[in-house]
Amino acid sequence: MIRRLLVADRGEVARRVFATCRLVGIETVAVYSDVDTDAPHVIEADYAVHLPGNTQSATYLQTGALIAAAQRAGANAVHPGTGMLAEDPGFAQAVVDAGMIWVGPPPATLRTLVAKIETKRLVAEAQVPVLPTWTDPDLVPSFPVLIKPATGSGGHGIRVVRDAGTLAEAVASTRREVGGDVFCEPYVGNVRHIEVPILADAQGAVVPFGERECSVQRRYQKIVEETPSPAVDPALREDLCRAAIVAVRALGYVGAGAVEFLLDPNGDFWFLELTPTLQADHAVTECVSGYDLVRLQLLVAEGGSVPMPGPPPIRGHAIEVRVCAEDPAYAWLPATGTLHKFAVPDIAGQFRPLPQPGLRLDAGVTDGSVIGMHHDPMLAKLVAWAPSRQEAARMLASALARTHLHGVVSNRDLLVRVLRHHAFRAGEVDTGFLDRHPEVFAPLLSSVDAVRLSCLAAALAGAAARRAAAPVLSSLPSGWRNVPSGSQNAVYDGPTGPVEVGYRMNRHGELAGWWVRAVDPEELDLAGLGHAPVNDEHPPVVVVQADSDRVVLNVQGIRLAVHVHRVGEVSYVDSPEGSVTLREISRFPLPAPEAVESSLIAPLPGAVRRVLVVPGQRVRAGELLLTLEAMKLEHPVHAPAAGVVSSVPVQPGAEVDTGELLAVLDPE
Asked: Biotin carboxylation domain: which residues (predicted)?
């Protein structure tokens, strides 16, 4: 029996496992790096062991340190979470050799699964459809093809090559990136990514839990998942589940996992891989099945039998989105910073199967969490469970749109637009969905009038906050002036550049006129603001309420409530129209050092992984100069133009912050 369990992972995964442990009476042990000292998963654990350092490789991937931590804390079992350790046969063997229970498939099975080519061979011998595999690029007969790492998973290191002329260089580049061997297989377009979650016990029983649709992806990684798939009918579901059972038995698998397939428009499917983890999208399966998959996973690890005779019936529809700290509009650039506020409305439960349809939140962060560069950018998973797919999509989109997410850039708006898109609602999704529909990258708050009203609300809330803190005359209405022509003004740096907000109040403290207009950054004169032409004034607005955190406006007979959360000079503005972040520009800014001309600066905090140029080297436009590693991803820095590298002040292994100088390029 598992008495005390160490989870060798962090964030929402650790919190999810701990939630079930508390329910079934198992004590919990967390591990944490330096930056995770006050993380939610550490606070919720019964015991916690510090792993000195910050990077993944120095902490959460240190096999010896994790085994020692489990022994020091008196744990008799280890759960690997959903990261790389869940697929590491060496770690699994170390746990077993230490006399502890390993919550996962046997080490021998993991050794087979790590070898992707061998896995495909065994599954093909069991008569499960598999795509051809080529390890020698010279033997590739046709294009396009996918280059994939021979080990690992999670979508890392995958490239599409469309012609023979670029194949050799692409293979070499992928080998450098993944640090190992690669193979090629045909690239099949217009396919869906379907997976069958399974549970297998040591007695030979294998139970599939329907299928999950995971086709909406970025960088070959899932961001929207649902069950059941809108493309799978009962007959196809039976075929997929049968193939999954055959694959599981061919590989000798025991535990919870997912058999992944590609599905084309004709209904043909091919085995991709067997992922030996409790998948991040297991929550949707829990919703429609009613089973706690973590509890079942622990039961099988203790040697127990699968407690159901066959696949459980599907109840309704569930959709999950992964809310990540990243900017979709800028090549999914990860974002760092302090999460000042994270509030999702109408949550019915967290980390456990829901008793009835509603919203479930599995989050690894809370208000005040620091989002650093060392870990995955996922903040939370939000799940909607409803009687039908349309109801689930509508519920989830509405909750996301009303979520207050302040402090870091996120993919929230993109997720809302995907869920509301007519093609998604019609079930017309595949792995190329985001490429075909660039309109989903637009921000929710996009109409001119909505942006203007948000700016006005921010200015009114800022004035109310200053008035409330004033040592004298704090009872006067905000913006009141003896001289009727006087106006209140503020300048914000918004999503599209500086904007001026101005408004005038009458003698009764009522809004007498207002305007919002763009300001040319090159001609920004903060001392000369406040004189808007008459034709720049906007339609009348009545201020119903103007507090420091909430402004209610009556716009042509319609009331609009706007929430404003101020952190220093930044206002986070949320309304039914969407959200916007506005940074107030000081009228007396401190002088800032000028950037070196032709300098290349770090777009985000990270560690310099590779430096490919030296001072004096001539480079072409678009040539790779160096790479940064942040949030478990590699980010390239290319030459913006042809020129000569005049200096490179960073070296591999150095940690840099946003805006730090990486290189100086003298353009030709």
From this structure: 1-439
The two tokens of residue 649 are: 């002040």
10 Å Cβ neighbour count for 246? 17
- Classified as helix, coil or strand, 435 is helix
* Fold match, 189-305 / 316-443: yes
Please state, in angstroms and rounded to a whole number, the distance separating the CA atoms of residues 439 and 296: 41
Which residues sit opposite 256 in a β-bridge? 199
CA distance 562 to 578: 10
pLDDT at 442 over 80: yes
What does the alpha-carbon distance between residue 99 and residue 374 come to, in Å, rounded to a whole number?
31
What does residue 490 show for φ and ψ, rounded to 5 degrees?
-150, 150
pLDDT digits (tens, 9 = 90+) for 307-333: 998 999 999 999 999 999 999 988 888
Give the H/E segment covering residue 256.
strand 255-263
With 0-12 / 13-18 / 19 or more C-beta atoms within 10 angstroms meaning exposed / middle / buried, residue 439 is exposed
Alpha-carbon gap, residue 624 to 665, rounded angstroms: 13
Where exactly are the structural domains of the chain?
4-103, 134-186, 189-305, 316-443, 448-470+487-524+536-585, 599-667
Residue 534 has pLDDT above 50, yes or no: no
Task: Identify the architecture of domain 316-443 in CATH.
Answer: 2-Layer Sandwich (3.30)
**What CATH architecture applies to the domain 134-186?**
2-Layer Sandwich (3.30)
Q: In Å, how far are 324, 421, 430 from 433, measured between CA atoms? A: 18, 11, 6
Q: At what angle do helices 412-420 and 389-401 cross, to 10 degrees?
A: 150
- Residue 25 CA to residue 433 CA, distance in Å, equals 43
Average pLDDT, the chain: 91
Give CA torsion, residues 231, 237, 239, 243, to 10 deg.
Answer: 100
Q: How far apart are CA 8 and CA 29, in angstroms?
A: 9
Band of residue 418 on the pLDDT scale cut at 50, 70, 90: very high
Report which of 284, 118, 309 is spatially closest to residue 214, judged by C-alpha positions: 284
- Rounded to whole angstroms, the Cα distance separating 207 from 313 reads 12
Domain 189-305 CATH (choose: 3.40.50.620, 3.20.20.300, 3.30.470.20, 3.30.1540.10) = 3.30.470.20
Phi (first) and psi of residue 540, to 5 degrees: -60, 140
192 vs 497, higher pLDDT: 192
Q: How many residues does this entry show for the chain? A: 668
CA distances to 92, 120, 427 from 629, in Å: 27, 31, 36
CATH topology for 599-667?
OB fold (Dihydrolipoamide Acetyltransferase, E2P) (2.40.50)
Pairing of strands 192-200, 212-218: antiparallel
Contact 562, 454 (CB under 8 A): yes
CB atoms within 10 A of CB 526: 16
The string of pLDDT tens digits covering residues 559-584 is 999 999 999 999 999 999 899 999 99
CA distance 304 to 293: 14
pLDDT exceeds cutoff 70 at 544:
yes
Q: Is 35 exposed, middle or buried (0-12, 13-18, 19+ CB in 10 A)?
A: middle
Confidence band, pLDDT 50/70/90 cuts, at residue 68: very high
